[in-house]
Design brief:
Elements (H helix, E strand, L loop, with lengths): L1 E2 L15 E2 L2 H8 L5 H25 L11 H14 L1 H8 L2 H15 L8 H5 L1 H13 L3 E8 L2 E4 L3 E4 L7 E9 L2 E4 L2 E2 L5 E3 L1 E5 L2 E5 L20 H18 L1 H10 L2 E5 L9 E2 L7 E5 L4 H23 L22 H19 L4 H21 L7 H17 L6 H22 E2 L2 H12 L4 E2 L9 E2 L10 H11 L20 H7 L3 H14 L3 H13 L5 H6 L1 H10 L7 H6 L1 E2 L3
Parallel strand pairs: 11-12, 12-14, 16-18
Antiparallel strand pairs: 1-2, 3-6, 4-5, 5-9, 6-7, 7-8, 10-11, 13-14, 15-17
Helix pairs in contact: 1-2, 2-5, 2-9, 2-10, 3-4, 3-7, 4-7, 8-9, 8-10, 10-11, 11-12, 12-13, 12-14, 14-16, 14-19, 14-21, 15-21, 17-18, 18-19
Length: 588
């Protein structure tokens, strides 16, 4: 299978060779899992992508003043000289994720597609920092000038130095090497004031813990933030990698081939980790400080899936651009475009596969939750018109594998919690983002006022009108409470009368629901519906009714937006919400 792509060497951007992905790795990638051979194919393609990006940047910047830095061609020549001397280390630098993020960002700045606070010469001048890193790796003698940001000079993949006497946000400083002695803004690379990038090590895997590079965050540049909890990251990474290698050795070997850096972020709320990756930064995982090793391992798997699919989509077309349709994503609060949903299903397939092998209470919950939710998302896009044949091949392969896992036994307590979390998120999403037809709402309100049976309009899911909005709280709030309950049955009772102080968005009625007091939960949710309404209250009422096996639960959890709209049409607080929901006859 051939893909036309230029494969320039740093010293000759005009050499062209086609990329070739062998059939077995290609099929592995479509199926959602792969070994090192497939990742090596992606790395080779990403190398070409990176070099073309660098060449495009230099061409686009032609004529833009570089002062107070050298011309960009000088940086390109130093990079070439280093490559000729030590191609192996320089190749690793060129594939370093932050180099890709910088080049993409700088090109967008030059083209005017993104704004920026810094002078353009600062962004373009990062090429000199890349070239200086390459020359240091090659052991070459050199002298160049690089940008200073926020008092720092950072050499990608190596580390950074606080520049003595630097004033203002932007400036320039000299970097030089002679006879093995490297000076960065007057600071010796092996002396005080130099901050080396540290490493995270697992069996068969080493990545950089990057807390310094201005482009480590995948978007706009940011100041260095030397981490004071690096030892905890290192310990958790070692344990997480041990888990991954034991549970899924093939995935571990593939990830070890592709991952380059972990970018730390501050600790997030328990069971609400933050992580990210980017198609511009193959090999990078941005991750908040993990709760534990199991969560860290799942995060690495999740983001590496994004890495793989992003690189795959640099070679192959899975969907046609254009179109404004949005889809339900069970892992997000907002409706997602087709491309975003493809990335999501691919990532959460990997998460599901990881947790499938875990026997902990939380592991069983995550497996049961994501096997169902990822399959639901896949079924939601199976008829998307903009999917290419290859896109359908990918979604069909993931659907087949997830379908085979649906009936695998799971601890009953974890399974029940997962089903509650899935119903909660799907109903809450509909209540926030699906618009009920005004004529059908008015017709139903008249029927209710006349004591006639109500029928739900047909066409749910396929014909929904999506209205993006911003929920007042995360749609995962009750799922977070369920996780806390599974990990420690007494944890929720310890939250006290104001659970929102610990779990953002949580209210006492949520605690009652999750801890099994359905009667109290129903009472409080009914009161909230009458007093203020809102999707969280309506869906909470539906969940409480389901716990009581009340027949009105189904309509509230499958079509909450319609019941809410009819209730509002009838005047709101004077209408009994449970009686109204009970009046509907569902054909589902």
């Amino acid at each position: 299978m051939d893909v036309d792509a230029r494969r320039p060497q740093p010293h000759d951007a005009q050499q062209v060779q086609p990329h070739r992905v062998a059939l077995e790795p290609y099929r592995e990638l479509l199926s959602g899992s792969c070994g090192p051979n497939a990742v090596n194919s992606l790395r080779a393609a990403e190398r070409s992508w990176r070099l073309l990006l660098l060449r495009a940047l230099i061409d686009a910047a032609d004529g833009i003043p570089a002062a107070p830095l050298p011309a960009l061609d000088d940086g390109w020549q130093l990079l070439n000289r280093a490559w000729e001397s030590a191609p192996g280390p320089v190749e690793r630098l060129l594939l370093y994720p932050a180099v890709g993020t910088w080049a993409a960002y700088a090109l967008r700045r030059v083209r005017g597609s993104v704004p920026g606070q810094s002078p353009l010469w600062v962004e373009l001048g990062q090429l000199h920092a890349v070239a200086a890193s390459a020359a240091v790796l090659a052991g070459a003698d050199f002298r160049t000038t690089v940008p200073v940001r926020d008092g720092w000079v950072v050499l990608p993949m190596l580390g950074g130095a606080r520049v003595p006497g630097a004033e203002g946000r932007w400036g320039s400083a000299e970097v030089s090497a002679r006879a093995g002695t490297v000076l960065v803004g007057g600071v010796r690379r092996d002396g005080p004031g130099w901050f080396p990038l540290r490493e995270l090590n697992g069996e068969g895997c080493t990545v950089v813990l990057d807390d310094l590079d201005p482009f480590r965050g995948l978007r706009d540049p940011q100041p260095p933030q030397p981490l004071d909890t690096a030892e905890r990251y290192a310990a958790l990474f070692e344990e997480a990698w041990r888990l991954l290698a034991h549970e899924d050795p093939k995935t571990a070997r593939a990830a070890a081939t592709g991952l380059s850096s972990v970018v730390p972020r501050p600790r997030a709320e328990l069971y609400r980790p933050h992580s990210a990756s980017s198609g511009d930064a193959f090999g990078a995982v941005v991750a908040s400080e993990p709760d534990d090793a199991e969560q860290f391992a799942a995060t690495l798997v999740h983001e590496f899936q994004h890495n793989k699919l992003g690189a795959f989509m640099h070679l192959f077309t899975l969907y046609r651009d254009g179109g404004t349709e949005r889809f339900y994503a069970p892992w997000r609060d907002d409706p997602r475009p087709l491309g975003g949903l493809l990335q999501g299903v691919y990532a959460f397939f990997g998460v599901t596969r990881f947790y499938r092998r875990r026997q902990t209470p939380l592991g069983a919950f995550e497996f049961a939750l994501w096997r169902a939710q990822t399959l639901r998302a896949l079924r939601g896009i199976r008829d998307a018109e903009r999917l290419t044949d290859l896109g359908r091949e990918l979604t069909d392969a993931l659907t087949a594998r997830l379908t085979a896992w649906q009936d695998e036994p799971v601890d009953p307590r974890a399974l029940d919690a997962a089903r509650q979390a899935a119903a909660d998120h799907a109903a809450s999403w509909r209540a926030h983002h699906v618009s009920a037809d005004a004529r059908q709402v008015a017709r139903a309100a008249r029927a209710y006022a006349e004591n006639r049976p109500l029928e739900l309009p047909q066409g749910a899911d396929g014909a929904d009108v999506i209205v993006p909005g911003r929920p007042r709280r995360g749609l995962d709030t009750r799922a977070v409470l369920l996780r806390r309950q599974l990990a420690d049955p007494d944890a929720l009772h310890a939250l006290g009368p104001d659970p929102g102080a610990v779990v953002e968005g949580a209210r006492p009625e949520d605690i009652a629901l999750v801890t099994g007091d359905a009667a109290l939960a129903r009472q409080r949710f009914e009161a909230r519906v009458r007093e203020e309404g809102g999707p969280e209250a309506w869906v909470g009422l539906g969940l409480a009714l389901r716990a009581e096996h009340h027949p009105a639960a189904e309509v509230l959890l499958t079509r909450p937006e319609f019941v809410m709209a009819v209730h509002a049409e009838l005047g709101g607080s004077g209408t009994d919400p449970v009686r109204l929901a009970s009046a509907f006859r569902s054909e589902r």
